[in-house]
Amino acid sequence: MEITDLSxxxxxxxxxxxxxxGDARSFGHDRATTLLRLEADDGTVGWGEAFxxxxxxxxxxxxxxxxxxxxMDPFDVESLATRSYTNPYHFGGSVFVQSVVSAVDVxxxxxxxxxxxxxxxxxxxxxxxxxxxxxASTMYYTERDRPIEEPIEAAVDAxxxxxxxxxxxxxxxxxxxxxxxxxxxxxxxxxxxDVNGNLRPDQAxxxxxxxxxxxxxxxxxxxxxxxxxxxxxxxxxxxxxxxxGEAHYGRFAFKRLIDDRLxxxxxxxxxxxxxxxxxxxxxxxxxxxxxxxxxxxxNSAVGLAAAVQFAAxxxxxxxxxxxxxPMMVEFDRSENPLRDDILETPFDPSGxxxxxxxxxxxxxxxxxxxxxxxxxA
Length: 377
Ligand SMILES: [Mg+2]
Prior knowledge:
By secondary structure, the chain is α/β, with parallel strands linked by helices. It has 2 domains: 115 residues, Enolase-like, domain 1 (2-Layer Sandwich); 234 residues, Enolase-like C-terminal domain (TIM Barrel, Alpha-Beta Barrel), CATH 3.20.20. It has 13 helices and 17 strands. Strands 6, 8, 9, 10, 11, 12, 13, 16 and 17 form a 9-stranded mixed β-sheet that branches. It starts with a strand and ends with a helix. The structure holds magnesium ion (MG). The site of magnesium ion (MG) has 5 residues, from loops.
């Protein structure tokens, strides 16, 4: 089997004026990502996503990858991540190179699954897995004043039984946001908080102590992702579990998070971390320290599909009171047609479960006409 064609699709969607969604650092108005389509000599098509701007992916593909990938056997892809660190030697580990590696890798796994007639989570060694627990990413900061309880009430009404909310922008309102979310979710639901790296360690320490009473499943990126000493300090002083990984990529960065016990949960993004091959290596590293793996998802339907297949392949651990903690997948509640409008059968988290596609490969069919609507070319 041989890859004969490689195409890049830069996609974007802009939110209406005044409808920007914020985290602790800023408001975002655009959803943008890049898809990569591979075609094999027997006509099999595979899709991957690079969580990076279209023109950068296009240039990186043309300069560094096209010659290697076209003509490659998709079953050889696992050597790509290794080669990418050494060739190009001095920047192979950079974020844009690793984002492209992610897209090529996932597209090759999609083709491999289709070639052997099995869903990717089974090829990765996972047991049968029909569904996962989706959690709502919600309570974003909004540009217009809105009641803070509205989005979390809507998520509960839609059937979500777990949620992650944005905090960290304003110490005067953080605790109230968490208290509101906990009240609306109820005592048994899992509640996570996301600071998006906006705080200093001393501020994050105070906030963690203030919200500990609300039974927080994890506190995500309390300090900037690069601030390893900050994570180390927090880990020693707070009881709230810590999470990071959406801004990390490659096994070397995750190895530091895991070996140095900086976090309790690692969150590789399948469109940035190096793809399914690298995510599996990261999961293996995490398992050696009983660190949980929960993929970060702020992607199109392709990145979501890769994350779902990966999540479905991860063994059940850690355990609490003899029961495995549920594997959760992130489902953001913002307007995202790049997720909801480009598949023939979109993912549907309503009812509190997310079905794991059982069709071969990623188990999705991309509507290529829909891609034209969101092309940023
Ligand atoms: Mg986050």
